[in-house]
Amino acid sequence: MGDWGLLDEDGYLFLLDRKSDMIISGGVNIYPAEIEGVIISAPGVDDVAVFGIPNADWGEEIKAVVQKSTSAGADEAVRAEIFAYLADRLGGFKQPATIDFIDEMPRDPSGKLFKRRLRDPYWDGQDRRI
User: Which residues lie below 8 Å from residue 54, measured CB to CB, with a gap of 6+?
Assistant: First the structure.
């Protein structure tokens, strides 16, 4: 199915993410689900999607798209608050390079996120896809 996971010493399987969602930046595999799990708990965040976008030097860089809470402030204030929140919770290489905001995440009727609809515009016109 394209899922990535690991087995611990006791034989428990931990699913990390989907292979198609993995970000490769500077040769490092980065799992968006881990980053999303931290961002969703930040103040002012109702929903989040994290994915890789093209970067000429590193291959990909981390992009976060956030659906703000209705009570959240202006974009710049919320963006700064999210970056400050992440500073102590994620290693530098796992922090998004940029954060954009969206009114509502694209989801199907069952609630599954259409991450491709968010990611694909950044890859339009690229000769390669990592």
Answer: 60, 61, 122, 123, 126
